[in-house]
Amino acid sequence: MKKSSVMAFMSTMERWAVRLSGKFDEKYYLHRYPDVARADFDPLKHFCTHGWREGRDPGPLFDNRYYSSSKMKDCKNIINPVIHWVFHGCRKSKGNIPPEVYRFRKMIQQKRLCSMKQGDIIFIVHDCSLTGAPVFILNLLKWILDKTSIEFSVVILSSGPLLQEFCHISECIFYWALSDESERKQFQNLLSGAKTLYVNSIASGSVLPEIAASARQVITHVHEMEGAFEAYPDELSNVLAFSTTYVVVSELGKEALERRLDDARQHPRQIAIIRPAVPIKPLLEHENTGSSFLIVGCGKVSARKGVDIFCQVARALVEDGVTEFKMRWIGGSGDVDILSLIKEMGLADFVEWFDEAGSPRSHFDQADIFILTSREDPFPLVCLEAAECATPIVCFGPPAGDVFRFVEQGCGIVVPYLDVPAMKDAVKYLLENKKQAQEMGKIGRDRVIAQHSFDTIGPEIISHICPLHAS
Question: What is the pLDDT at residue 340?
C-alpha cells in the first residue's frame, strides 16, 4: 500500500475515533473558532489536522492544553489528546478522571471558582440523565438565557448524557469532581454570594446541608410524589429542613408534600403548583407509513412506569382480535426485564423495545396513540411531548397522577386506575375512529401551546425568584 493511502486511512480512523469519543462538538467548535466557520472548513477535519496542535478544544467538556500538560508529558504535540484519552485515559478503570473534570480542576487551580461570574441564582441539578427533571430544568435554563437578563450558575451533582448541553448554556460546577477540603471550601465560597438556590428535584437534597445555609431563599422544584419520597428519605428530610418555597407539578404532589411538611412540623412560605412545560416545535406530518398502527409508551423500564401493564394492554388487544398494530416502548433499562416479559407473554410480533438515548419526539411523530401506563407519575413530560406532536393520549385517572386533568380536556381518553381492559377498549376505540383520534391530537397540541410552553410557564417560575432579587 502506498504511503499516501496509509496516511489517508489513518486520518480517516482518527476522525472516526474522535467523533465516537463523544468529546467533539461541531456546534461548539464553529462557535468558539469563527475562523474555521468563515473558511468553510469541515470542523472535525480541522481539529484533527490543525486544531489540536494549536491548542483548540474539541468541545466544552475537554480542555486540550490542560489534558496534554497533565497526562501526555512524553508525547505532547505528537498524539491528538482526544485519541490519547480514548486509548488510555477512558480505559483506566481505577482513578480515571473524565476530561470534563480536568477542565473543572483547571478552574480550581487557577482560582477561577471564586471569581467566576456567578449571578444571584444557583441552579442545583441532581444529574444529567435523559429523564423528566433534568430535561425540564435544561429547557428552562435555555429559556431564561434567551428571554431574560437573569444571570445564573449551575451546580451538577452527577454526570450523564445531558452534561454537554448544560455546559453550552452556563459555566457548570461539577460537584462530583470536588476531591478535597480546599476545593469544597472554594465551592462553598462561590455559593455564599447567591441569594437563591433553585433545587431541581428532591434528589438534590443530599447537598443542601453543605450549601444552603447562606442562601436567603431555597426553592425546591418537586417533580415527585409519595413513591419517590419513600425512595429518598434522607434527601427529602434535607429538602423539608432548608426549603423556603416549593414548586410542585401536580395537586397530588402538593397533597403528598403537605402531609410530609405537617409530619415534620415545617411551614414553608409558599407551595405553588406550576405545570411542566415543553419546547414548541413545528408540527411534522405523522410519519407512520406502515400498514400497522403504532402505539407508543415511554419511560424507564420499571414497575413504576407500568411497562408490565403496557404489555398486558398489548395482549388484551390481541385476545380481542386486534392484530394490525405495533406497540413500542422507549426508555432505558430499569427493574423490569422487558425482553423476557415480551417473550413470556408471546408478544414478539406486537411489542418492541427501543433502549435509546435522546429525545423520544421522533417516535411521537410516528405514533398514532401514546399510552401512559404509570402507577405513579405526577405530571410526566412525555405526555406533553406526545401531545405537542398532536398524538392523542390514553392514561389512568387518579391516584396515578395529575396528567388526567390535561387529557380529559379533549386530548385523549382517561380510564380508571390500573384498569387494563378499559385501557385496551380506549386504545381500540381510537384505532377504529381515526378522525376523532386526530381531533384529540390537534386539541392536545393546541393546549400544550396555550398552557405548557415556556413562554407561559417560565414567567410563573421567575415570579417566585424575582421579588427577592428586586430588593
Answer: 94
> Above pLDDT 90, what percent of the chain?
47
List, for residues 287-320, the tens digit of each pLDDT value: 555 568 999 999 989 999 999 999 999 999 999 9
For the sheet with 412-415, list strands across it. Answer: 351-354, 325-330, 293-298, 369-372, 393-396, 412-415
Total Cβ atoms within 10 A of residue 294: 20
Are 368 and 346 contained in the same domain?
yes
pTM: 0.79
In a domain, 285, yes or no: no
Q: CB-based burial of residue 7 (10 Å sphere; 0-12 exposed, 13-18 middle, 19+ buried)?
A: exposed
- The CATH code of the domain that includes 264 is 3.40.50.2000
Count how many domains the chain has.
3
- Residues 367, 294: Cα–Cα separation, whole Å: 5
Count the neighbouring beta carbons within 10 Å of the beta carbon of residue 213: 12
Q: Which helix (H) or strand (E) holds 341?
A: helix 338-344
Q: How far is CA 132 from CA 71, 86, 383, in A?
A: 37, 31, 11
Q: Are the beta carbons of 156 and 115 closer than 8 angstroms?
A: no
Report the amino acid identity of residue 382: V
- Strand 196-199, strand 293-298: pairing: unpaired
Q: Which three cell numbers stand for residue 447?
A: 393546549
Tell me: do 105 and 122 sit in the same domain. Answer: no
Cell of 296: 407508543
For residue 90, give Cα distances in angstroms to 82, 136, 156: 10, 30, 21
Phi and psi angles of residue 99, each rounded to the nearest 5 degrees, phi first: -55, -35
**Distance (Å, whole) CA 53 – CA 47:** 8
In this structure, the answer to whether residues 266 and 145 fall within a common structural domain is yes
Mark whether 237 and 304 lie in a shared domain: no
pLDDT in tens, 133-178: 999 999 999 999 999 988 888 899 887 778 878 888 887 888 877 7
- On whether residue 308 sits in a domain, the answer given is yes
- Cα–Cα distance for residue pair 244/463, rounded to 1 Å: 15
Which residues are CB-neighbours of 69 under 8 A, at least 6 positions away?
76
Which whole number is the average pLDDT over 437-447?
Answer: 97
